[in-house]
Amino acid sequence: MRRIAKFHKVSKEQFQKDWIDTFGENDRQTGTPEDIYQEIKLPRRATAGSAGYDFFAPVDVTLKPGETIKIPTGIRVEMEPEWVLKCYPRSGLGFKYRLQLNNTVGIIDSDYFYSDNEGHMFAKITNDSNEEKTLEIKKGDGFMQGIFVEYGITVDDDVTDVRNGGFGSTTKKE
To answer: Which residues pair with 109 in a beta bridge?
Structure first.
């Protein structure tokens, strides 16, 4: 098995900035952003045969049917070029609650690690249950999984642009 990536936490300063931007200073009754940051766990596989790396909830999350939340994970990933990390809801949560990532599949490019926001990965999730089930994810529970995939490019590809921003930055032209 090729080892092509390594997970890291974003800096404490980046996490605090993004957390406060998302939830406010103490909006979630879960402690300060600094307390939450200290307890962030890096993604890991559950078993030797698992393809996906589980991402763990930094706080308790409750979503009624139709509700959405954006979660700053505190995680960034450094990986070799020509690889991508694809993020999906954990299978069981998708099956039981129709948990959805709002962008359907999160795509983390290898150069995102060097973005202005340190490559901080966010997950915007929705409980899309049509069975009136409320989703409860406890702090530390896996809620999303990431799978590394190698990719190729076309023979006539001549892109030389370099990423300089975060989410959506590669489509912004000045």
So the answer is: 84
